[in-house]
Write a structure and sequence with these properties.
Blueprint lengths: L14 E6 L4 E6 L2 H7 L2 H12 L13 E4 L14 E6 L6 E6 L3 H7 L4 E5 L6 E6 L2 E6 L8 H12 L5 E4 L2 H4 L7 E3 L7 E3 L4 H7 L2 E7 L9 H10 L1 H14 L5 H6 L15 H5 L3 H8 E5 L9 E5 L9 E3 L2 H7 L8 H14 L3 H16 L5 H4 L9 H13 L3 H5 L3 H8 L9 E2 L2 E2 L9 H9 L13 H6 L11 H18 L18 H7 L5 H21 L11 H5 L14 H15 L9 H6 L4
Parallel strand pairs: 1-6, 7-12
Antiparallel strand pairs: 1-2, 3-4, 3-6, 4-5, 7-8, 9-10, 9-12, 10-11, 13-14, 14-15, 16-17
Helix pairs in contact: 1-2, 2-21, 2-23, 7-22, 12-14, 13-16, 19-21, 21-23, 21-25
């Protein structure tokens, strides 16, 4: 890596905006270039600031916690998938360090306004929103917006900012009411955004009396070689189309059918993987596109347009519209025993408007449904709601109650683990979680690498940060998805790649067309930065960033005892389908963890060794 540039790399501004809501002080400072060289930007750079500024004993909902927004090298550049921005904070859901990302236009506008990141700290005395228009930054009164749903909030803030181009990240009632599974919605009303989901980041925003952040950037970006970048992208457009064609047609919903066929698509809170074939066919991607697609949606500077904006067609759900992804189709659908796109679209719009994390909110409903069917909770507990699997009207009623924190919704509004702790009766054994964060839409007993990825993810059970192993476990030679040997090195490699991808801030969908894999070519990065980064530099940075996150978690008390899987995964074999009979026993998990820790240079308790810190030059 070329370290002769004492100023900064191109493609980055080197500027950090710091906003203190308690003192109303707004300061622009410089980002240490040495940090950029080690942590690149995005997720890695945000983690570096978190390490310095958020102590291990910080209460996630106190003024001392910070929302650290960070763009990366790729964010806002005229390149495939250059859409992402990141937030790092202490999660109210897990109680420790966490990170989330969103696509859309928010990160791009932040860069175009002249900032690589924003740190929001303190707590306002009354509701406020932040307006960023290039160098004009203001903290404004948001009392009129408090209580609004997310799309209404975004439209109102955009109107007050006075620029229709503004990208708005905001919370809904769930965040205002400090739900620990609240998200921060981005440009939901414009149908082109996404969400900073997972981990309850919306509650952190709500705890600061911060309703939203609006950004308009008009400065553009300073790139090292724009002509070279354009030529490179032109040469790779065919490869982009070949590798992402199904994403353009079906988005992530393309994964439903193949994962179901593999026995890796969990149903009804991971109790089964098979239902009547006619039910599952209702949710296959071809049905989505032919019956429910209203619009393909693209993020900034991306030709893939993988977002699928859907519209319900049947009574009583007509009129509901929203963007649906693979994960949320699952959490609001088959996980709850619901196999109707119409009802799922309606449920999805409700959680978006309230500002919930779609995975956690849907998961929590499905978990409650299992408790109801087991007799652990009853109609007296639910307020008369017949909460059996498949009751879509009950699901939607419950989601509304969760959004308002009313009746049974108050018990469930902080996620499944918190609900189980309040309900008691050994209900915690039915929560599929790691470190208090609910599972995503993959059955780890059908792909053992996913089990290790869930267990070791730096933000709790997660298929993104933790590592999505299924592609490699299917396609790489000599890898058996039901083997335990070799999974430590596999998961480490995938996590390290994801860490550098998140830190340059690139969407994962087009990354292969840019040769950003486990053996990356850094050409596209150097056309933007002029930094002379090598592919090896990127891989080392990814390993450094993931290990650095583990250091933070170690400081917050996370060790091997927390890298565990739920009892159902360890003791109950899958009852049906192609993966029938498989489980990940405690001994199997221990073997994979030992192999993983050794590959990472952590000790047998999952603590980063001093020699590893030195080797990776972490601090």
């Amino acid at each position: 890596m070329n370290k002769s540039n004492s100023q900064r790399w191109k493609g980055l501004t080197g500027r950090l905006l710091r906003i203190n809501l308690s003192t109303k002080k707004i300061v622009v400072g410089e980002i240490p270039f040495a940090w950029v060289q080690k942590y690149l930007g995005g997720r890695g750079l945000a983690a570096r600031y978190y390490y310095e500024e958020v102590g291990p004993d910080t209460d996630p909902l106190s003024p001392d916690n910070k929302l650290i927004f960070m763009a990366g090298i790729m964010t806002g550049a005229p390149a495939f998938g250059s859409t992402k921005s990141y937030i790092v904070t202490k999660s109210p859901l897990t109680g420790h360090y966490s990170v989330t990302n969103a696509g859309g236009y928010f990160g791009a506008h932040l860069k175009w306004a002249g900032y690589d990141g924003v740190i929001i700290e303190g707590r306002a005395d009354s509701p406020v929103y932040i307006s960023i228009k290039d160098d004009e930054v203001e903290i404004r009164n948001a009392s009129n917006f408090w209580g609004m749903k997310t799309s209404e909030t975004q439209d109102a803030i955009r109107e007050w900012v006075g620029d229709k181009r503004a990208s708005v990240a905001c919370i809904g009632p769930a965040g205002e009411k400090l739900s620990k599974i609240a998200s921060i919605m981005v440009d939901h009303s414009s149908r082109r955004g996404g969400a900073f989901g997972r981990g309850g980041f919306g509650a952190v925003m709500g705890s600061k009396n911060l309703k939203g952040v609006a950004v308009v950037g008009t400065k553009g970006m300073d790139l090292a070689d724009l002509d070279g970048l354009r030529s490179y992208l032109k040469a790779h457009i065919k490869e982009l189309r070949e590798t992402t064609g199904n994403h353009t047609k079906y988005g992530t919903l393309q994964y439903v059918e193949p994962l179901y066929e593999l026995g890796a698509y969990p149903l009804m809170n991971f109790t089964r993987t098979r239902v009547d074939e006619s039910l599952m066919k209702n949710l296959f991607a071809e049905v989505m596109r032919s019956r429910y697609l209203a619009k393909d949606v693209a993020c900034a500077n991306c030709p893939v347009a993988c977002g699928k904006f859907l519209e319900a067609k049947e009574v009583p759900w007509t009129g509901y519209k929203c963007k649906v992804e693979y994960e949320t189709l699952w959490s609001l659908g088959p996980h709850c025993g619901v196999f109707d796109y119409n009802a799922i679209i309606a449920a999805h719009q409700i959680i978006d408007e309230h500002g919930f994390d779609g995975i956690s909110a849907g998961y929590t409903v499905g978990f409650a449904m299992e408790l109801y069917e087991r007799g652990i909770i009853d109609k007296e507990f639910t307020g008369g709601i017949d909460l059996r699997f498949g009751n879509d009207e009950a699901e939607i009623q419950l989601l509304e109650l969760m959004g308002e924190r009313k009746c049974v919704g108050e018990v469930l509004a902080d996620g499944a683990v918190a609900a189980a702790e309040r309900i008691g009766k050994d209900s915690i054994r039915y929560v599929m979680h790691v470190k208090r964060q609910e599972f995503a839409a993959y059955e780890p007993r059908a792909f053992y690498g996913m089990g290790l990825a869930y267990a070791t993810s730096s933000r709790g059970a997660c298929h993104n940060v933790g590592g999505w192993t299924i592609r490699d476990e299917l396609l790489k030679p000599r890898i058996d998805r039901f083997a335990i040997r070799g999974k430590g090195e596999l998961v480490k490699s995938i996590q390290d790649v994801r860490a550098y991808i998140d830190s340059i801030a690139l969407c994962t969908i087009p990354r292969r067309s840019l040769n950003l894999t486990d053996e990356p070519s850094s050409e596209v990065i150097n056309y933007i930065t002029g930094a002379g980064i090598t592919g090896r530099d990127l891989v080392i940075a990814g390993e450094r960033i993931y290990t650095f996150e583990r250091m933070i978690l170690n400081r917050e008390g996370i060790t091997k005892k927390d890298d565990m899987l739920p009892p159902r995964i360890m003791y109950e074999p899958i009852p049906d389908g192609p993966a029938k009979g498989h489980r990940i026993s405690p001994a199997m998990l221990d073997f994979m963890l030992d192999e993983y820790y050794e590959a990472r240079g952590w000790d047998s308790n999952g603590v980063v060794r001093e020699e590893t810190k030195k080797r990776l030059e972490i601090i």
